[in-house]
Design brief:
The protein is an all-alpha fold. The protein is built from 14 helices and no strands. It folds into 2 domains: 175 residues, Growth Hormone, Chain: A (Up-down Bundle); 195 residues, MFS general substrate transporter like domains (Growth Hormone, Chain: A, Up-down Bundle). The C terminus is likely disordered.
């Protein structure tokens, strides 16, 4: 199977296929930990909702610190050695948990530390992977290469957390983390087999010039109304969504009492919605246009979680209701992300795409850590189910604001060449 992948034109060339496979392995492992770490806190340490929120937030806080600065650092050196380092270091960081658990020395504070360190390595690797991709393919293949990586990322973001819950049920907490460590170390071996050399590193610009160039990405996003509206909604949605997902873990495991396997299954089934969304996205714009598509898809993603707090008993009907919720959620979110990303790419000049992507990542993913803390705080103050209702209401309110904003936003001609930023 691996040999077929390496030879397939679907993955462009052998070196890109190896890189792609290493990214699949690390993405599955890292996104699985977003479910495993909070479950460890809930089950192993009987953590409060706020403590669970802190564990989840620790994985996302590094995005605020690393995203822009790692881009400057990567401009000074080859990217592949950095990716190899993050793969090996990520595997070793995860190994800390089963080792300490075996020695009976593992505690909640250590989980905080591992989550933060591991999250830092993930943030570095995701920025580095974007910078490394162009050196593996021809310029004419770059869009296709990015598309193949984005397709995997979208699917893994929805499916892998559920896989983490399944691994917890099958292998226990230490076993699930150990599996993630193994995937990371295998990914390092696969990446080590990439043969293509990177082009020579160009000397960096001065500090003043670099700061100015980073700011150019933010200026472009703010200057184009549709991009400003889309990224603003992404930030709001991610903030309230993360609060909802944090409480969902606590509510399902501690209040309703479903097993980690069933909890993971409900989230994993969201991948079905993601695949359906990816298939539907191409036809949707042709029939309804960008504005209607993004509003409709965001409506589905924002309203689907209302089904979660409706179910209160650990029955097959509850699992079915939650599964339907995540299928709808995955469908709507995937369609929205496809159109948001493609619109940004079409309206961004080539020489600004890297900086705009970094700024977008910071704005969209920066609120995740605050969202986990919001969810934990709401759960501690009002209870998990009541907190879920509040987060669902906030998601709906954010959507209504998005509808108003889109009505006021002019959609440019996406077939025209974007005007170059001054």
């Amino acid at each position: 199977m691996v040999g077929v992948l390496l030879k397939s034109r679907l993955l462009l060339n052998g070196d890109f296929a190896r890189f792609w496979l290493s990214q699949v392995l690390t993405s599955v492992a890292s996104k699985s930990m977003t479910m495993v770490f909070p479950l460890l806190a809930t089950i192993s340490f009987a953590a409060t909702p706020f403590e669970v929120g802190v564990v989840a937030a620790a994985q996302y806080v590094p995005v605020l610190v690393v995203t822009l600065f790692i881009g400057m650092w990567l401009d000074r050196r080859p990217r592949r050695p950095t990716l190899l380092f993050t793969d090996v270091a990520g595997g070793l960081a995860l190994l800390i948990i089963p080792v300490l658990s075996g020695l009976d020395e593992f505690h909640l504070g250590m989980l905080y530390a591992v989550a933060f360190g591991f999250g830092s390595l993930v943030a570095i690797a995701e920025v580095c992977a974007q910078a490394y991709t162009p050196s593996l393919v021809r310029e004419s293949e770059l869009v296709a290469a990015i598309g193949r990586l984005e397709a995997v990322f979208t699917l893994v973001v929805v499916a892998a957390p559920g896989l983490g819950g399944l691994l917890m049920n099958w292998l226990g907490g230490s076993g699930a983390v150990l599996m993630g460590a193994v995937l990371y170390l295998i990914a390092a071996l696969v990446l080590l087999s990439v043969n293509r050399r990177e082009p020579p590193v160009v000397a960096p610009v001065t500090r003043e010039r670099m700061v100015s160039e980073i700011a150019a990405g933010a200026r472009l996003l703010l200057s184009i109304p549709v991009l400003r509206t889309l990224i603003g909604q992404a930030a709001l949605f991610n903030f309230f969504e993360q609060a909802m997902l944090t409480l969902y873990t606590v509510y399902a495991a501690s209040v309703v009492g479903v097993t980690p396997a069933l909890l993971g299954l409900t989230v994993t089934l969201g991948a079905v919605g993601s695949m359906l969304g990816a298939v539907a996205a191409e036809q949707a714009e042709r029939r309804w246009g960008l504005k209607r598509v993004v509003v409709a898809s965001m409506a589905i993603a924002s309203f689907a979680p209302v089904l979660i707090p409706l179910a209160t008993d650990p029955t097959p009907l509850t699992v079915t209701i939650w599964s339907v919720s995540f299928v709808l959620y995955g469908f709507g979110l995937t369609v929205y992300n496809v159109f948001s990303t493609s619109t940004r790419q079409r309206l961004t000049p080539d020489h600004l795409r890297g900086r705009v992507a970094a700024t977008t990542r910071l704005v969209a993913y920066g609120p995740l850590s605050a969202g986990t803390l919001l969810g934990g705080s709401l759960g501690s103050l009002f209870g998990a189910r009541e907190g879920l209702w509040i987060t669902v209401a906030l998601l709906m309110a954010a959507f209504l604001h998005f509808v108003v904003a889109m009505k006021r936003t002019r959609i440019p001609d996406l077939r025209a060449e974007p005007e170059l930023a001054k």
